[in-house]
Specification:
The model has no long low-confidence stretch (mean pLDDT about 75). About 60% of the residues lie in helices and about 0% in strands. The protein is mainly alpha-helical and about 110 residues long. Helix 1 (about 10-35) runs antiparallel to helix 2 (about 45-65). The protein has four helices and no strands. It has helices spanning about 10-35, 45-65, 70-80, 95-110.
Amino acid sequence: MDKVIAIFRRSIAKMLGRLAVGVVVTGACALVAFRALPAVAPGSRAALLGAAGFVFFGLVTIVLFLQAFRAVGQMNAAAGGFSISMAGLDGSFDDLITAIKKANAVAAKEGP
């Protein structure tokens, strides 16, 4: 009986990089939104965009932070047993397709 094991893991450097960018952009938007920069007039378009960016990028940063601690197996179990997502992983799409083809071949040999 052949066993196919495909391991895709998160790239810690990419996750930390994205998290750092999220924090920096959220901070920059906060500076504009809360008028910490003297060039931003209250009620101006820049202040409005800063507030919208602060909310949007702040939420995205929170999601990235939470996603950094979630294992792929936990996501699969929460989805009812089987789910495939390459988001945040260091494998390529071709690696995923190859793993699926190998798993299908093994499943065909073993039967239901």
